Amino acid sequence: MNQILTASLAPLLLGFASTTHALLQEDPASDQQVRAPAAVAPDILYLVVDDLGWHDVGFTGGTSHPTPVIDGLAADCMVFENAYADAPNCAPTRASLLSGQATARHGVLTVGSSARGKAADRAIEPVPNQRFLDPAQDTLADDLRAAGYRTVHVGKFHLGRDPIDYGFTDQRGGTGAGHPKSYRSPYRNPALSDGPEGEYLTDRLVEESVRFIESDDPRPLFLQLSFFSVHTPIQPRPDLLAASRARLAGSRPRDQKYDAMVLAVDAAVGRVLREFTAHRSRPLMVVFTSDNGGYGPLADNGPLRGSKGMLYEGGIRVPLAVRWPTPFEPGRCDVPVLLRDLVPTIHAAAGVSPPERSLDGRNLEPAILGRPMEATALHWHFPVYLERDASVEGPWRTTPVAACRLGSHKLIEFFDTGAVELYDLDRDPAETVDLSLSHPDLVRLLQQEMERWRGQVGARLPSRPSGPRTSTERPDAPRPEGTP
Questions:
Q1: Hey, CA dihedral for 234, 264, 62, 231, is it positive or negative?
Q2: Stretch 254-265: mean pLDDT, rounded?
Q3: Is 33's pLDDT higher than 50?
Q4: Every domain of the chain and the residues it spans
Q5: In the beta sheet, which residues pair with residue 333?
Q6: pLDDT band (50, 70, 90) for residue 469
Q7: Judging by DSSP bridges, how do beta strands 378-382 and 386-387 pair with one another?
Q8: Average pLDDT over residues 289-299
Q9: CA dist 191 to 3, 173, 252, 272, 444, Å?
Q10: How many CB atoms lie within 10 A of CB 280?
Q11: 361, 287 contact by CB (below 8 A)
Q12: What mean pLDDT is predicted for residues 390-405?
């Protein structure tokens, strides 16, 4: 096996000696195209599911849940088979989805405190977290609103107290909370009135979306429908739970409940797509994705190692399908991409010129339209502690960590110990064989690239405590809102 890997790495190590510097210095904005506004600005439907695992849908190869509507949508899309969240939990990824920037640049690094867990178990001081995205930060919603769009957010927000502060013209259900108090009315959500007792939240978000879809407002519509599902608490709709129990007889009750929640999302996507067809005449762009890898005790992350809260593939690989608003050939693309790439991609689809602020994503239009698109280095910066969930042993899901993927190779660096792990994802997507000792030249190359990138985005690093721990977080402190 070593001989095979050495042969496969030889072009990397030799070719990078002369060409990597130029490739890695490439400005992500160089892929963006400045264009005149489209003759007919498309509607844009942005579907984000919370905590959906990579194999929780069929179009990625999953078989745990029937998702015929979502799979049918994906068949009409460009599916990105190596798509990644910007972080392994929700708030930082959502901040990147809206800003187009890396987490290290916008400052939202995790959910709640970066010093979660027991202070005695923390070997280093994590980088302080910025809980919410700065309202002064321009966003995709700002960009589209300035271009004449009605910008609507429905559902989970988690980036501030009100989406209206971040460029949205209208919103329903969005607050700073990371999960619902209940999936059944009464919801106890200050941004969403209660419905009839027992009304189901996923269905209610669809009804709120339909009101905007059916509106006679002449502006093109940007609808960000951000489901609270399938985040905890696991509270399915009773009729769907009955169907899941019948189909999954003999499985764990919590798996049946989780399955029913996935079924509700699939049905909701179908309803929204039908309403666009029935009531809107503009071309429609659709994006479907999840905000991070699936929650370990419940989701199906397929063969991938790890889950939500980790920089192993199971924590950051997400389903991603994009339908372009003008005729194109649906298919599959294996170029590794990040969700922050969707901001310049939506700019291109809407005919919006790139904004003046720094963007760390790049326009995926060439890949969507079937044109060659060169892979570039992908980076994750998660210099925080995250306590364990039921899927792992020990105190942590992760200690402060960073990762870089270049080509098929991914380096993970743990800041508390200095340890590194290297994987060839083409040959070993489950990250079972650590190549760091057998390929020190590649480790060094990727470490240099990580250092270059950190300087570019201003990434802050954890520090060694110089004296008694200064954290005021108690070992028994309640988990911040929005966990697990």
A1: negative
A2: 98
A3: no
A4: 30-376
A5: 80
A6: low
A7: unpaired
A8: 98
A9: 59, 5, 34, 21, 50
A10: 17
A11: no
A12: 96
Q: What is the spatial distance between Cα 364 and Cα 372, in angstroms, rounded to a whole number?
A: 10
Q: Which fold has domain 30-376?
A: Alkaline Phosphatase, subunit A (3.40.720)
Residue that is written with structure tokens 């963006």 in the block = 32
Determine contact, residues 346/331, Cβ cutoff 8 Å: no
Tokens of 334: 């294996």
Residues 6 or more apart from 321 whose CB is under 8 A from it? 59, 73, 74, 77, 78, 79, 80, 286, 287, 288, 289
- The tokens of 132 are what? 């919410």
DSSP state of 230: T
Contact yes or no for 361/343 (Cβ under 8 A): yes
CA 24/CA 375 separation, integer angstroms: 10
pTM for the model stands at 0.90
> For residue 464, what pLDDT band results from cuts at 50, 70 and 90?
confident
Distance, CA of 186 to CA of 423 (rounded, Å): 47
292 vs 131: CA distance, rounded Å: 17
Q: CA-CA distance, 447 to 406, in Å (whole number)?
A: 11
- Are the C-beta atoms of residues 294 and 53 closer than 8 Å to each other? yes
Reported confidence tier of residue 11, pLDDT bands at 50, 70, 90: very low
| Amino acid 17: pLDDT | 35
Here the tokens at position 110 are 């995790």
